[in-house]
Amino acid sequence: MPSLRTSSASDIVKVLEASQASIEFLDIEEENTRLISMKPEEVKGLTTHCEISPSTIFSVVTNNIPFANHNQAPRNIFHGSQSKQAIGVFTTNFSKRFDTMGYIQHYPQRPLVTTRNAHYTMSDRMPNGFNVIVAVMSYTGFNQEDGVMINKSAIDRGLFNITAYKSMTVSERKISEDEEVVLANPVALQERLKRQNEDDTPSTSANPPTTKNMSASKIGNFHPEKTDYSLLGEDGVIKKESYIQSGQSVAIVGLVKRTKRYVKDKQGVLLETKVVEEYQNMSMHSDVHHYGKVDAVYVEKMSPLVPFRVCKVRFRKVRKPELGDKHSSRHGQKGVIGMIIKGEDMPYTKDGIVPDIIINPHAFPSRMTIGHMVECIFAKLCCMEGTLGDGSVFLPFDLKNVCDNLETRGFEKYGNELLYNGFTGQQIPTDIFIGPTFYLRLKHMVADKVHSRGVGFNNPHDQLTRQPTAGRSNQGGLRIGEMERDSLLSHGVAQFIKESMMERSDKYQWIVCKRCGVLVEYSKPTRYVACRSCGHNDISIIETPYSMMLLTQELESMGIQMRFSDEPFDLNDEDLIEEEEEDEKEAQAGGTNIDTLDEGEGELREEGNDGDGDGNGDGEDVGEERKVDDEGEDGYDEVVGQDVDEEANDRDGEAEDGEGEDSKDEFWEEGDGDEEDEQGNLEGRNGSRDGEGSAGEIDYESGEAPEVEGGAHEDTLKIIVLR
User: Fold this and answer.
1) What gap in Å lies between CA 603 and CA 610, rounded to an integer?
2) CA atoms lying within 13 Å on the CB side of residue 403
3) Catalytic one among 11, 27, 124, 146?
4) What is the CATH number of domain 62-161+321-441?
5) Considering just the CA atoms, what is the radius of gyration of the chain in Å?
6) Which percentage of the chain shows pLDDT scores above 90?
7) Torsion over CA of 444, 447, 452 and 457, rounded to 10 degrees?
8) pLDDT tens profile 476-520
């Protein structure tokens, strides 16, 4: 086209007519029925279309990656998402915008190696990165696992320095006819109300009417001793260029809710209605996001027809790179800063070149980002020749020619150089790959993510569960999730788990009945205690997480009642070993003693029953031993006699007539078929070990244990069934 600059219009038209062609946009479905060539020289007889450029198969973002065709495909995809997080100049009118969040890089640079598509999309005119000298080496070991070591001297000179903007927006509004929220300085309003109440000043246009028909009260929720209101102006908005330190509680915008309340006042025989104005403080304070310098303040009416105003305040913070900040190249090689090293301690070349960034060599073999290394070598040559390199994809690139030109300029042709240790001055006994590479600073920064929370109920808690709130903005707690729980369990730190789950969360004291184990009605002012279940006041105070009591109440609302026992349970390893040995002996003998059944396996444990029905503790009547089978049909818990156990009969093949039926209608079932009636067996089984007292009948519907005479406790029988 340059040859046509001096040509006439008719000559240009003739040239264009000779090479003209129509541009057609093909759908994915249409491409299946077309023969498309990538280059004009590849057009053949059956070719239907030709691509404008081979790079058009990439997206707008991917086309900004130099030598993308030399990278593994996932790395190009990673850059597609990371480039959207890069900090540059996102708009030219950023100083006049009040975005919720915005970042501006102070000294962005145009990349040394760019692409043609970046020129067409103006990406190189508003860059978002920096041409840094990158050395690929292990130096002090602080760049392991994608760690990045960065030069402190380069940071002090402005490398990757940014300004972070955060905006706050509040507006006046009308809630109802008698309620509205307006901008105001609570301190000035409080003083004005105080003077009006003392002087009974008549109403004017400037002062709200507080005469005999209007009276003012104090401002609610106003605590000037906890929050600093000194930076607010007369209109209730913070002054420009004010500074707020991180963690300081300062009022940014003063908001007051004004409520009118009508009160009838009788003075003698005259009854009149007074309007009382009540004020509630709703000011916006600084938090984990809004602090720093007040960069700009905007106060204006929402519209000419709406009397309410909107207020916007923008904060500005200068941020230097710090430990944990995320950086990335244009090839998906992301990493966080692992160490900031002084410039005098960084390695250096014979020419005095000091790297700005040191990355780990292990970042390349498995990821195969060859385009990253090609960009480094090509950018090195561009620095020496003072030109910009074209790294557009699918274009012929003579790497050998680049390497030869580097060698003619006194460099090793593959980009390697000898470096000297910055700590000792000794030569590092290996070649180091070093050169300029375009790096991006991403928006994921430690300053936006660091979070901690104090202990105690001064911190916010959830209203329902009384557990710490969630989220950094709400001063929330640090969640111990499933995986964290697994780690703590593997360490065996039981007391730490208890502290995290209860002491520092929702520890709660509540009262249960010692007799029946249910929640007890308790009135703190009157010290009234009563159990609605049994009517006694024998209580016990227990400590659990509040969510446990909440679960108990929710289950009771569904008709499921949990009962609690405060009896201590102490079982050491020797007891466990003895019980296991006894269980093994009884299993080998073919029987199970009712007094040694394991509670943890869902079996029956009976106190005061020796198995023979006479209560003398000899345990001779083995035929009446019991156990609970948790695996009965239809989900029933079955109590079967040993001699009529169906599984045992099936194994032995000796099932007897009439004795293989499991009882679901009765809790107890005769196991030996002798002539004693059911009542006699129940009396014998519930007798105490000392032979004193006799048991009454069991109430099957209520499931309550009978009262026992002779001093025995009424709930002698304990049945524990675990599913």
Assistant:
1) 16
2) 11
3) 146
4) 2.40.270.10
5) 41
6) 51
7) -110
8) 888 888 899 889 989 989 888 888 888 888 999 989 998 888 988
More confident residue, 720 or 45: 45
Q: Report the b/e string of 542-552 with b at 16+ CB within 10 A.
A: eebbbbbbeeb
Query: What element of type H or E holds 104?
Result: strand 101-105
pLDDT computed for residue 645 by the predictor:
44
To 10 degrees, what angle do helices 370-385 and 399-408 make? 40
Compute the average pLDDT of residues 341-346. 96
* pLDDT of residue 107 exceeding 70: yes
pLDDT at residue 608 in the model? 43
CATH fold of the domain at 166-319: OB fold (Dihydrolipoamide Acetyltransferase, E2P) (2.40.50)
Q: What is the mean pLDDT of the chain?
A: 80
pTM of the predicted structure, to 2 decimals: 0.71
CA 79 and chain centroid, separation? 25
CB 256 within 8 Å of CB 181: yes
Establish whether 652 is a catalytic residue.
no
Each domain of the chain, given as residue ranges in start order, spans 2-52, 62-161+321-441, 166-319, 471-540+554-565, 591-718
Nearest to 703 by CA among 653, 667, 660: 667
pLDDT at 350 over 60: yes
Answer for the pair 204, 349: CB distance below 8 angstroms, yes or no. no
Paired strand residues for 433: 136, 416
CATH architecture of 471-540+554-565: Alpha-Beta Complex (3.90)
